[in-house]
Amino acid sequence: MPPVSAHRSTRTTLRRTVAVAAALPVLALTATACGYGSDSSDDKEKVAAEGKKVGGLDEIKVGYFPNVTHATALAGLQEGIFQKELGGTKIKTQTFNAGPSAIEALNAKSVDVTWIGPSPAINGYTKSKGQNLRIIAGSGSGGVSLVVNPKKVKSLDDLKGKRIATPQLGNTQDVALLNYLSENGLEVDANTGKGDVTVIRQDNKEIPASLESGSLDGAWVPEPTASKLVAGGGKVLLDEKKLWKDGKFVITNLIVSQKFLKENPKAVEALLRGTVKTNAWIAEKPEDAKAAVNARLKKDSGQALPAEVLDPAFKNVETLNDPLASTLRDEADHAVKAGLLEDPLLDGIYDLRPLNKVLKAEGEPAVDDAGLGAK
Fold first, then answer.
1. DSSP labels, 81-119
2. Is the model's pLDDT at 219 over the cut of 90?
3. pTM for the structure as a whole
4. How far apart are CA 193 and CA 184, in angstroms?
5. Considering just the CA atoms, what is the radius of gyration of the chain in Å?
């Protein structure tokens, strides 16, 4: 199932979207005043907000997921790299468990920017008719696997009749699994999850116990859940990297509210400088970065990952500035094939001009929007 297909016209038009995932009730890790995610802004940070405020802005509200696939966010926040770039403009953070809740928070102005997977970004942009967000940078590639109970599933040919979990209906891993099954002749109703394979939508943190109890036969999940399953006796049946050209596909992007981007370009540019510097630091000092990621995970969840989970999870994720825009096209195609979207709107979803300005200043090559950039 090579997902790098011939590209459709960049001038896709919005007609009607099924947008199942975006219509779901908001899911959150912890209840907060806004109801969208867990607010950790009151915790003491390594670097304090001090000095001149960027563009006179008091604070910037930043969202991310406590997943290793969000390593840029985790490491950059933990080490204070973003805060250093923002000076006296304070970072207020929220964590999310699912893409739809992050989009709801962005739409409600509870966050200004957030790291998020590609499918919710496409879904949210389509539902708003291209009015709510822009993708302004890449962040992560890879870090997703199909892990199974090796006693029940010996090969990919054994998937028929099995119960396979994904984190949420319509999320990035859900779309990937549905597409993979379809490409291999296994039919599943996208809405109910019923068919030749039963697709169970379950929270990442609940999946390991379900696999251990036998209520699941496998799961298509991001890191560190995939490595948790392996540590518990599961087997990686398929690394999603093997389905993509050169083993690269977008798993995490950085998105911003269009209103915030227009009104606070200097703050956005400062955050992007932090992103680029964080990714460079991760590449230069991976062991230090891995420790920072784990420290942030402990701060957010109260528990650090053991080495047998953290080491493979961190290794499986590639952090990068490039949003891998051509693979976003393909992920949109997969959502259409799965019946979760009809004619997704992609034109103008990217604005990489601020990022390319930062990259140029850092002596790094520009990244491409695959013809999907804002004019």
1. HHHHHHBTSEEEEEE-SSHHHHHHHHHTTS-SEEEE-HH
2. yes
3. 0.87
4. 16
5. 19
The answer to whether 167 and 66 have CB atoms below 8 angstroms apart is no
Least confident of 10-24, 253-267, 349-363: 10-24
* Every domain of the chain and the residues it spans: 21-143+247-361, 144-245
- The DSSP bridge pattern shows strands 133-142 and 250-257 to be antiparallel
Residues 109 and 56: their CA atoms lie apart, in Å, by 19
Q: What is the mean pLDDT of residues 300-309?
A: 95
Report the pLDDT value the prediction gives residue 37, as an integer from 0 to 100: 58
Tell me the average pLDDT of the chain. Answer: 89
DSSP state of 191: T
Biggest alpha carbon–alpha carbon distance for the chain: 60
Work out whether the CA dihedral 349, 82, 252, 217 comes out positive or negative: negative
Helix, strand, coil shares, percent, the chain, to 5: 40, 20, 40
Enumerate the H helices of the chain as residue ranges: 71-78, 81-86, 99-107, 118-127, 172-183, 207-213, 225-231, 258-263, 265-284, 286-301, 307-316, 325-338, 353-361
Residue 348 has pLDDT above 90, yes or no: yes
What span, in angstroms and rounded, lies between the C-alpha atoms of 227 and 352? Answer: 33
> Which top CATH class is 144-245?
alpha beta
Q: Do domains 21-143+247-361 and 144-245 have the same CATH topology?
A: yes
Q: What is the pLDDT of residue 365?
A: 96
133 contacts 124 by C-beta, under 8 angstroms: yes
309 token code pair: 């989970």
pLDDT tens for each residue of 244-299:
999 999 999 999 999 999 999 999 999 999 999 999 999 999 999 999 999 999 99
Fold designation for 21-143+247-361: D-Maltodextrin-Binding Protein; domain 2 (3.40.190)
Q: β-pairing, 317-319 with 59-64?
A: unpaired
